[in-house]
Write a structure and sequence with these properties.
Helices cover 33% and strands 17% of the residues. By secondary structure, the chain is of the alpha/beta class. It has a seven-stranded parallel sheet with strand order 1-10-9-6-2-3-5. The N and C termini lie close together (11 Å). The structure holds 2-amino-2-deoxy-6-O-phosphono-alpha-D-glucopyranose (GLP).
Length: 243
Amino acid sequence: MQVIVGKNPKAVGEMAASLFIAQLLRKPDSVLGLATGSTPLPLYEALVRARQAGALDASRAVTFNLDEYVGLVPEHPQSYCAFMWKHLFADLGFRPEQAHLPNGVAGDLEAECARYDAAIDAAGGIDLQLLGIGHNGHIGFNEPDKAFSHGTRVAELTSSTIEANRRFFASEKEVPRRALTMGVLTIFRARGIVLVVTGAAKADITLAMAEGDITPEVPASVLQLHPNTVLIADEAAAAKLRR
Ligand code: GLP
């Protein structure tokens, strides 16, 4: 895992954006894996600025998001689909068919997971995957577990993740308890991975993920084994790294 430290979240966003811009210059029809959460926002803002400046053309890109809440229709303001259109897709001029998210209101959730993995495969696999990280080391919604998960699946959210995500909802009761998420193996199969992490509150998990034991108890730690992962952290999140 290559580690790059930026001064602050904006610098992290700009460095991560350059990797995505370079990817699209090399391969305009890239398959990109995307993430939600507050950490990717400076990156998405940088991509939108780049498009406005004429430095980014994503018209041939295809995207697959990591996850979606179970039970929220795509139009729900807190759905990850709505998040992506609000913060990125609309401003990049995306057509609906370019962007893929798991359908959290599918009648058969298991079949939807299988369909999603098949769609990623049919697109040729993910060229560059963006990740954030939860305070407990989760990636997508792959929570700490006894084993690394495989394909896209229905995941139960832990109480700490529900608590962390309640800031986006009127009350804790409204936070969905389940989500569809790419599995750890789905993520690991991406040809390149960019993991962004910012803020002092994530310094401990950044250390555990990058330098601790590789264990499903810290799902992101598996990225130490990935041949092409770049961790971009701000100074606050990187403060405890030793190597
Ligand atoms: C959610 C998402 C993750 C994200 C995490 C951290 O749980 N499913 O993909 O990495 O939140 O979010 P934030 O960047 O807001 O800390």
